[in-house]
């Protein structure tokens, strides 16, 4: 095999580096001998150079030396060393090839696993939509896909009134049918005011980071001229407010279903208060922001007013929220803590018990909060069974009713320090919810009738 000068030198260097030490010494010695034989010309023979004289007998040239047994043994050692070195090189080359192939396959498997986890965390509904996403545009807050306005316009039939799921202060929520029969909810905001743009950014910021079964999942967003859109997973049973105060008037919500909804909402809120770092204060817990899926699993939504926990005062943050749900210390003094969310949750719990709106008009222009109206009666065990929602009257164990009412009363205490942590509320509700609905209660007999 012929090897060019540069290539031959590199091959020789590679072999010398990789071969065993003894083989290296043998090869070096062999190379030295070979170079000496080639570069040194034979010494001139005096007999050959001398003139031939008459009568002088010239001795014949000395015969070539025949290799001895020792020389043959030395050559065999050199040959064995070369062969071993070549084998070592081949083995290392094959090993390197296999190692590289294994690393590449492991890397591909890891990337595939990460992609599956990301898709799972964003919800299975997102997968068929990926073809319509603009991959060059991503939210600066988190990895939330930006969708084209034309896709959403088509999916909502140009934001037709027949697809409206609900209306808010700054826009409407539409039902959208995306490619692949994926149904989603699209909140459309008209950014005519600066606070709307701020709420839009806030929503993406928080929902892009939170992953919890009882917090709504965001699938994408869109910015188009003065319009901002957020795409969520669709909750088929709408909001708790719609179920309680809509046309059905709570008829679909049994006693245990209501407790399950309260437990789910408490779990979502507990995640914000206990497991997020820094903690997150929602600031707008209310029945319209608790959404229900097809089997009445509840999820907290609308993080437009959310903020991180810490020492807040009126100079840091403007009091915001919905009348009837806002804690008194926050409304009057701007004092904001996680206990403000606990107060709002207590109002929702009373709403589930009484089936009434938190604020009711009692005459122009006066409104009355049911917290002040109901407190004296809720704490009276003889009156409580008579004021709860007629839909659920006489359908529960009265001991459980008293326990839930006691939790609600603690949550709406005027003094924040008297209110429990949401984790304590959660632990109080778990034993009252049947096992099949996510609690620990084992129903072994029919509920006793009131009275």
From TrEMBL:
ATP binds at residue 188. Coiled coil: none annotated. GO terms for molecular function: ATP binding; protein serine/threonine kinase activity. Residues 1-24 form the signal peptide. Pfam families: PK_Tyr_Ser-Thr (PF07714). Keywords: ATP-binding, Kinase, Membrane, Nucleotide-binding, Serine/threonine-protein kinase, Signal, Transferase, Transmembrane, Transmembrane helix. Belongs to the protein kinase superfamily. This is Protein kinase domain-containing protein. The keyword Transmembrane applies. Residues 159-430 form the Protein kinase domain. InterPro entries: Kinase-like_dom_sf, Prot_kinase_dom, Protein_kinase_ATP_BS, Ser-Thr/Tyr_kinase_cat_dom, Ser/Thr_kinase_AS. The chain crosses the membrane at residues 78-103. The keyword Transferase applies. CDD domains: STKc_IRAK (cd14066).
């Amino acid at each position: 095999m012929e090897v060019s000068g540069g290539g031959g030198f590199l091959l020789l260097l590679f072999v010398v580096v990789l071969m065993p030490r003894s083989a290296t010494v043998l090869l070096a010695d062999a190379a030295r001998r070979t170079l000496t034989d080639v570069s040194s010309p034979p010494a001139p023979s005096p007999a050959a150079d001398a003139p031939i004289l008459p009568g002088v007998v010239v001795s014949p040239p000395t015969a070539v030396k025949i290799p001895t047994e020792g020389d043959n043994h030395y050559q065999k050692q050199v040959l064995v060393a070369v062969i071993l070195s070549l084998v070592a090189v081949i083995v290392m080359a094959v090993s390197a090839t296999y190692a590289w192939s294994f690393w590449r396959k492991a890397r591909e498997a890891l990337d595939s696993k990460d992609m599956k986890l990301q898709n799972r965390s964003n919800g299975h509904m997102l997968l068929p939509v990926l073809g319509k996403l603009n991959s060059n545009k991503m939210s600066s807050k988190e990895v939330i896909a930006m969708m084209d306005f034309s896709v959403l316009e088509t999916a909502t039939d140009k934001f037709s009134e027949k697809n409206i799921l609900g209306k808010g202060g700054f826009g409407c929520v539409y039902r959208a049918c995306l490619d692949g029969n994926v149904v989603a909810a699209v909140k459309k905001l008209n950014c005519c005011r600066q606070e709307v743009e701020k709420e839009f950014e806030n929503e993406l910021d928080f929902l892009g980071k939170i992953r919890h079964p009882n917090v709504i999942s965001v699938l994408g967003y869109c910015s188009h001229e003065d319009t901002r859109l957020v795409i969520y997973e669709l909750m088929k049973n709408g909001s708790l407010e719609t179920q309680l105060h809509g046309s059905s008037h709570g008829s679909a919500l049994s006693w245990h279903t209501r407790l399950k909804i309260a437990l789910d909402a408490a779990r979502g809120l507990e995640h914000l208060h206990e497991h997020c770092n820094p903690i997150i204060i929602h600031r707008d817990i209310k029945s319209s922001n608790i959404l229900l899926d097809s089997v009445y699993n509840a999820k907290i939504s609308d993080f437009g007013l959310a903020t991180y926990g810490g020492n807040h005062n009126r100079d840091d943050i403007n009091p915001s929220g919905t009348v009837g749900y806002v804690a008194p210390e926050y409304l009057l003094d701007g004092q904001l803590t996680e206990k403000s969310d606990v107060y709002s949750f207590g109002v929702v719990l009373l709403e589930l018990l009484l089936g009434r709106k938190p604020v009711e008009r009692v005459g122009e222009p006066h409104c009355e909060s049911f917290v002040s109206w109901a407190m004296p009666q809720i704490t009276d065990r003889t009156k409580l069974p008579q004021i709860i929602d007629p839909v659920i009257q006489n359908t529960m164990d009265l001991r459980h009713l008293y326990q839930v009412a006691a939790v609600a009363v603690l949550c709406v205490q005027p003094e924040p320090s008297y209110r429990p942590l949401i984790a304590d509320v959660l632990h109080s509700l778990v034993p009252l919810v049947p096992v099949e609905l996510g609690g620990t209660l084992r129903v072994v007999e029919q509920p006793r009738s009131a009275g």
